[in-house]
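Supplementary Note 3. Input sequence used for the single-chain structure prediction.
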Amino acid sequence: MKISQVVAPRRSEIVEIAEPVAGKGQVLIDVLACGVCASDRTPWRELGTAEKPVRLGHEMVGRIVALGSPDSGWRLGDVVTGLGSPGFAERAVLEENTILRVPEGIDPALALGEPLACLEEALGRCNLQADDRVAIVGLGFMGLGLVQLVRRLAPAILVGVDPSPHARAHGLRNGADEVYHPDELPAAYNTDIGRPGDLRMDLVLEVTGVTPGLEVAGSLVRPYGTMCIVGYHHAGTAKIDMNLWYKAVTIVNGFSPDRRRTMLAMGRGLDLVASRAFDYGTLVTHRFGLHEVDAAYELMEHPSADFVKSVIVP
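The predicted structure, written as discrete structure tokens, is reproduced below.
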């Protein structure tokens, strides 16, 4: 089968390898779609050699073509999504306990379970109440997904923050009430003017993955409010303003290391996809073939005005 692998910084190639075999408790899938995740940009940009290639892709949807355990309850032909890698390939093996069925009638490229599970798990730990004031800092793919998830919970106001005018426009299309450049936020949104006139946010979700995003998020949250760190701060020391301590802010780590919790969140997310309460259609804007993985990452590095998210369709 064909698989894409990084063989030098920013350069992938297609190679032929033996088809994987599903063992006990596993299934073999034809990969129908695999999302291109920002968390993989660093290995794509910096890693991979001909001797030690890097294989990426962990947001898979596929059709089951072989069962490692005939009595598993899964059937040949089931379309599933879940946790596993590498997904930039024609076929992949996934564990039975980390997959769920894709809702009937949904385009596989619009049913990526893993990123939606991450968002649903993070938001579920924030105790968001109807009529809360909410801000989302970072309006990339994950931030826009949160805009959709928060919108359905009836916040009093939903504010999006991003330096990109294109991202801000996407924020409005996905349900934000107001959008701002971080340098142009209304003073009342990050200034203590005293209750009941305090217009700072009850909940701020940071989805940038960079320290300046944390700084903006910290400035927006009200005393006794909640700030959830959803952004992927994967390297270095991400600094948090200790003034949040003086504001008695609750800090929520949006990451979940527990696969069981992630799968429960994925199930809730797929229910939203099935009911059309969450729509990947506004988020998945570009599709590339397996031989175009580098082009997909380059588009992420230098996005066009219409770009939000790419998927690889082998």
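The two ends are 11 Å apart (CA to CA). Residues 143 and 275 are 21 Å apart (CA to CA).
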